[in-house]
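In the design runs reported in the main text, the only information available to the sequence generator was the tokenized backbone. The following block is the verbatim input for one such run; it is reproduced so that readers can re-run the procedure and compare outputs position by position.
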């Protein structure tokens, strides 16, 4: 399943176009490497998403669901 569709189906991001834009801007990574919206998500992948003021690290399970491993709040104070 494509990354952008996967994120929408699992409710991480409400719209596929937003998921697409996040991936294109490099805010979705696997092994610290940015991945494209067309990336085929595989079971066992560990992905990082930076959303607004938090970073979510999750693992893809056998049934293409997610298991959140860590959620980190990012402090944007200057």
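Verbatim output:
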């Amino acid at each position: 399943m494509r990354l952008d569709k996967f994120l929408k189906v699992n409710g991480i991001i409400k719209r596929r176009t937003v998921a697409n834009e996040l991936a294109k801007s490099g805010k979705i990574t696997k092994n610290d490497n940015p991945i494209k919206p067309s990336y085929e998500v595989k079971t066992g992948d560990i992905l990082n998403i930076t959303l607004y003021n938090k970073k979510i690290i999750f693992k893809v399970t056998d049934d293409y669901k997610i298991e959140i491993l860590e959620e980190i709040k990012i402090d944007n104070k200057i």
